[in-house]
Amino acid sequence: MTTELLAPLDLAFWHLESAGHPMHLGALAVFGPAPGEGPADLAELLAERAAAIPRLRMRVRDVLLPVGGSAWTTDRDFDVRRHVRELRLGGEDFGRAVTEAAGELMERPLERGLPPWEMYLLRSPDDTRCAVLVKLHHALADGMRAVAIGAGIFDEIADARAAAARRRAASVPVSAAPAGLRRLAGLAQSRVEELGRAVGVGASLVRAGRLDPRGMPALSAAPSGTRRLATAVLPLDAVHRVRRTAGGTANDVLLAVVAGALGRWMRERGDRLPAAGPRALVPVSRRRPGQPAGSGNRLSAYLLGLPVAEPDPRRRLEAVREAMDRNKAAGPARGPGAVALLADQLPPLAHRFGAPLAGGAARVLFDLLVTSVPLPRAALSLGGRPLREIYPMAPLARGHALAVAFSTYGGQVYAGLVADGEAVPDADRLAAALGEELTALDTLFGAA
């Protein structure tokens, strides 16, 4: 039986969860009709491919040592049918039915005694369209690892993995030479450096904490435990036109789009626009190329004040770009946004008993999450059905009402907004404002 201790950050995510604050992330993939005759049972194909992904057979169990720790272990009673389910949706507007169903399904916590994931096959009444909702606990996957795990359901990835497995079976294993004392010395030095960085992060957290974080009523309302999903599709060529003229990165443009969209949305609601915020937590992957999927969450983050009160789109983008340049100059291992580094230094028992306190403290640091999740560039399909749209979904931190995630696929940027259903009942309007803000930026910069 395979056993692997949860990495410290994974353990933190595992214990941060409560019934009203599920800590799973997800993706909603929408497929078109197959050009030919697809498989007779798409749900069975989905289940078969999910069952072939080793990571999806792992569940969490407590261990004696280290005290308070937990481990991933292979579920000997694993039954993929407890995780893959099929729902047929009614109504004429399949897109709306899918997003509404996905929002409701994202409310439900994953069953903790089982491998912490679920997949739902959502079908249109006439079977011409379907979608797959994937839910993965954040302890199981960060954004990049979620893509690596979940991509196994697609035809192209499943076929490539099967071919690679056949090649491995036919090859003769070659044993690698031990790394020796130099590797041990390198690990020790890295550990000392991480401890030093953690001390600096802790001091930055104290300085960055806000005594009164209630600057935005819409984003700081009492949590209801409900979830609402809203989506938007943005043209990637418009993002690049703005980036080429204004400078910076595509992510800078998307962050400025979020800032402008929040300003539009808040003005329409009659909310006060805070001059100093809101603060966005912008995750940064610390995963090295080639790092195995089972090596735990590897995340840091930047904190970014979104200039929602700035009326000029050009100046909003400049402010975002300058702030992100300062963040990048300091690096992802410094500053209060690198709070994840502190989790790596805490003993398991501290995560088990301190998670509720840490979860409540997140509200003091930031107001919403804005993240970008990279996807494979190749065209993807499921049972011959081409992938048409894919919307990433980030978890809501305790005390937060909005998380925005972006993914690029097929020349479009897909935005998934996960909101508290009662605090942000008009999430669709905010999603529409993203497109309006990108159009405003493209008008300013794209024609230059």
TrEMBL record:
Its EC number is 2.3.1.20. The keyword Zinc does not apply. It comes from the Bacteria. InterPro entries: Acyl_transf_WS/DGAT (IPR014292), O-acyltransferase_WSD1-like (IPR045034), O-acyltransferase_WSD1_C (IPR009721), O-acyltransferase_WSD1_N (IPR004255). GO terms for biological process: biological process involved in interaction with host; glycerol metabolic process; response to hypoxia; response to nitric oxide; triglyceride biosynthetic process. NCBIfam families: acyl_WS_DGAT (TIGR02946). This is Diacylglycerol O-acyltransferase.
